[in-house]
Design a protein that fits this description.
Layout lengths: L17 E5 L32 H15 L3 E5 L9 H9 L6 E6 L4 H11 L3 E5 L5 H8 L5 H13 L3 E8 L8 H11 L3 E5 L17 H11 L2 E4 L9 E5 L5 E5 L12 E4 L4 E3 L8 E2 L1 H5 L4 H14 L4 H10 L9 H4 L2
Parallel strand pairs: 1-2, 1-10, 2-3, 3-4, 4-5, 5-6, 6-9
Antiparallel strand pairs: 7-8, 8-9, 10-11, 11-12
Helix pairs in contact: 1-2, 1-9, 2-3, 3-5
The structure holds S-adenosylmethionine and iron/sulfur cluster (2 copies).
Length: 343
């Protein structure tokens, strides 16, 4: 029997609300923590055109998620989503889906001066732009391609100028860019863009992640608080991954995404659709559920809904809660790379 949309809860009583759609596994950056250049070299076997879901296939799945599962937010990601040809056309199709309340994109910002305008016209509402430092030496090394800070800042301005909502993501890696926490906080406070600090995570298996390189949420807060006092504020909605803080006496805010030192799995309501049509129910998953084959073998909508319901119904992922135990036992989990699954 088909399970009813809004009542669909996973094994840990979590609903599905937020769908992240990866549109490509390619990227013009080689961030060390995500796609290290020594692994993602010129011969890396990126997905072929025929392996990618078409825009029609993505739209069909998104429509089913929205109309049958209570998904209200879509986020386009990758890889670098702006490297997918005609991405604004996909946005316009997704924006037309009844029930979609919000479409956002996570991007490295390098191509935004070119695309901000058409993205906004297509119906994109918000962008989260990743920038890890204001120092060109640090940033150039972290992005692995010597891309200049100014290029990303120009993208941020372009997004703001066309009226897109803007947030900034900064991954903090101990020994690499923690000295940039205060400069970044000051800069984006002044600019009026919420900045979210992300603890360096053990996504995938290629980044040689080490717990010693995690700069914890507690320390990030202490650093900022000692210069610009902070006070906690309520989440915008249930399941928000960033814990929010406001600079005392102002309306400007920051957020911290603490997957490593303060897990938030109990409220995780996200699913990720990879560019080749695999559905992942956790960022740290070892395998996805193939939806491309059913799509291409003419499953009906009700057959697809049944399949998706079963996937969510069986879900019991909570990797961040289990991480420490796995680390203690020296268990090395085989995880799909974030660039493939979608960040
Ligand atoms: N290319 C786009 C970008 O960088 O914004 C979208 C995809 S990227 C995989 C999505 C987000 O994941 C970015 O904000 C990035 O900084 C973050 N990320 C990637 N690897 C990470 C890691 N090992 N730990 C924490 N965050 C990471
Ligand atoms: Fe590319 Fe984003 Fe990964 Fe950096 S974090 S390599 S910009 S996909
Ligand atoms: Fe969600 Fe998995 Fe992250 Fe936990 S570890 S918050 S289940 S994506």
């Amino acid at each position: 029997m088909m399970k009813q949309s809004t009542e669909l809860l996973d094994k840990l009583n979590r609903p599905l609300r937020d769908l992240r759609i990866s549109v490509t596994d390619k990227c013009n950056f080689r961030c060390q923590y995500c796609m290290p250049a020594e692994i993602f070299g010129p011969d890396f076997p990126f997905l072929k055109r025929s392996e990618l879901l078409s825009f029609e296939e993505i739209e069909r799945l998104a429509r089913l998620f929205v109309s049958n599962f209570g998904v209200k937010k879509l986020r386009i990601t990758g890889g670098e989503p702006l490297m997918r040809k005609d991405i604004s056309y996909l946005i316009s199709k997704l924006a037309d889906i009844d029930g979609v309340e919000d479409i956002a994109m996570t991007t490295n910002g390098s191509l935004l001066t070119k695309y901000a305008n058409e993205l906004k016209s297509a119906g994109l509402r918000r962008v989260t732009i990743s920038l890890d430092s204001l120092d060109n030496n640090i940033f150039g090394m972290m992005n692995g391609r010597n891309v200049k800070v100014e290029e990303v800042l120009a993208g941020i301005d372009a997004a703001k100028d066309v009226g897109l909502g803007v947030k900034i993501n900064m991954v903090v890696q101990k020994g690499v860019n923690e000295t940039e926490i205060i400069p970044m906080a000051k800069f984006f406070r002044e600019k009026g863009h919420p900045l979210r600090f992300i603890e360096y995570m053990d996504v995938g298996n290629t980044n040689k992640w080490d717990l010693k390189e995690v700069y914890p949420k507690k320390q990030i807060l202490e650093d900022i608080h000692s210069v610009m006092p902070l006070e906690p504020i309520d989440p915008n909605y249930k399941g928000e991954v960033a814990t929010r803080f406001r600079y005392v006496g102002s309306s400007e805010e920051i957020g911290i995404i603490s997957s490593v030192t303060d897990a938030f799995c109990s409220s995780c309501n996200r699913a990720r659709l990879s560019a080749d049509g695999n559905l992942f129910t956790c960022l740290f998953a070892s395998k996805g559920y193939d939806l491309r084959e059913p799509l291409r073998t003419n499953y009906s909508d009700s057959e697809l809904i049944e399949l998706l319901s079963d996937i969510w119904f069986k879900r019991k992922d909570q990797y961040s809660v289990e991480r420490n135990t796995l680390l203690e036992k020296n268990v090395v989990k085989n995880k799909i790379e974030m660039s493939k699954m979608g960040g």
